[in-house]
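INFO  loader      accepted 1 record
INFO  loader      residues=85
INFO  predictor   begin
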Amino acid sequence: MEIILWIVFGAFIGWIASMVMGTDAQQGTLMNIIVGIIGAAIGGFLMNMLGQTGVTGFNFYSFFVALLGSVVLLWLYRMLTHRSI
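INFO  predictor   done
INFO  writer      dumping tokens
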């Protein structure tokens, strides 16, 4: 049951991050889930580097950490795939 909660949490975080970054029209549900889960791991890693705790469960702090990581992930993806002529 807990894995289903993480998938739903990842989908929600990925969807919010894609709206923040303006990529919502390009991403589907599966991509939102992947971005949210990987973003939570990136956010936890970044917060640990700053001496704070990472994702601790289903609370507002974890939402913020996962959203931060997801936005960073989408930003990095945009920077790596952006082609200027």
